[in-house]
Amino acid sequence: MIINKKFFIFVLLAILMQEILISGFDLLNTNFPFLDGVPITSSQALEYRYLLNWYLPIISMSFYFSGYFSDFTRIHGIAFFVRTYCKSKWIIKQYLYMFIVLLFFTMFQIVICTFFELGTSTISITNFIKSLSIYLLTLQTLFSIQLLLELYINPKISHLIMNIYIVASVLMSNQLYGSSKLLQYLFLPNYGMGFKNGLSQIPEFPEHTIDYFTGLPILLIMQILIMFLSIYKIKKMDLL
Amino acid sequence: MLQVQNVSKKIKNTYVLKNVSYTFKPGQVYGLFGKNGSGKTMLLRTLAGLVIPTEGEVIINNQVLHKDISFPQSVGIIIENMELLPQYDAYTNLFILSKIKKVATKHDIEEAIKRVGLDPFSKLKVKKYSLGMKQRLNIAQAIFEKPDILLLDEPTNALDDKGVELIQDLLLEEKKRGAIIIIASHLKEDIEPLCDFSLKMNEGNLVYE
């Protein structure tokens, strides 16, 4: 994956902005608020504030990855492609690189949170590791879906679909709280939120919709499925 | 040896390549001529492994493209709309590419850039290049790993007379090295003097001249 330095810095700035906003809003959070996400609450004002905080780096990352597959398969990548011999290996490598980039962004979030000393309650080490793993896997799954869609449709539309799905999932999850539990598992962005998977354990927001041990395997299966679909598509598609 | 056997390509119910068969041999230059939309570029893309034939096979050194291999194992290409990374200079672009196959040395990269008339030590980013400079760099990109097959779509595009002469000399050197060179162009007069064989594409059919 070729790093676009300007967009990369843009994401880091968005992360910085997220932490400044969080410290300004003075909301109830653990010391790593980006892992908490949006709680189940009857207050819409509160819900939107949490959503704004959580979503800012997410949309930046989505923007960062947007167009990568389509540009690569149509313009910049042709010279790379014909040297790689195997399209399947190439696409698997791209998802791996994407994970490394996401890991870097998340580490940056951790460093900034530690620097700003954010949050009102401390998260246990076990819950921190669990939260971090499911947060990373959620991001990886969401952006992998976005890139997979780019193999089929225009990257701008793929970017739009993914972001509508992310915002709608967060809002719908709250709207549908109390109805079918199974339905909640359709809203993938919530998997990575401590408030939704019960890992943040802030007493003011006890309700959660996702079980960590159910969510994690679902995300892993999704990731494998995305890989298979991407390999299938890239093997069949013409690079015009 | 590069063999094309009964290759057809259908896009949106229209055949853009119709039952094309031909054998390309090492150390020969093949000119592919024809009007716009006659199928020249499509044939080159098919040979490069970028387009999957609807029918037929492309066989390179006994390996079937899209069955045994995704792309030819040693190919250099210039194709329409293809761009290198605009944020890097010429040397860095080729250096990044060289890391994939690891067959070209730093000296090979510098040499290829010099051969097309560019400065390998220039820090000018590709986005600041003129069209002609971009085309020269594309040619350097195609030749720097000394590939067995060179597929060149309109290589003289955007080049001045001096540039065309330079490319002609360079292709003759590549021919001496033993590469199969296939050049698609609508400017017959630029390319034909170099060609051992002239092939004409007409509405997706390959016509021998």
Structural class of chain A: mainly alpha
Question: Which sequence of SSEs, written as H and E, runs from N to C of chain A?
Answer: HHHHHHHHHH
Number of domains of chain A: 1
Using the alpha-carbon principal axes, give the shape of chain B.
globular
What is the CATH class designation of chain B? Alpha Beta
Q: What is the subunit arrangement here?
A: heterodimer
- Give helix % range of chain A: 55-70%
- Please state how the strands of the largest beta sheet of chain B are arranged side by side: 6-7-8-3-9-10
- State the end-to-end CA separation of chain B: 21 Å
- Succession of helices and strands of chain B: EEEHEEEHHHEHEHEE
Tell me about the largest β-sheet of chain B.
6 strands, mixed
Uncertain regions spanning at least 5 consecutive residues of chain A:
none
Your description of this structure?
The complex is a heterodimer of chains A (240) and B (209). In chain A, 70% of the residues lie in helices and 0% in strands. Chain A has one domain. With 240 residues, chain A is mainly α. The mean pLDDT of chain B is 91. By secondary structure, chain B is α/β, with parallel strands linked by helices. In chain B, the strands form two sheets. Chain B has a six-stranded mixed β-sheet, with helices on both faces. Chain B has a four-stranded antiparallel β-sheet with strand order 2-1-4-5, with helices on one face. In chain B, helix 2 crosses helix 3 (106-115).
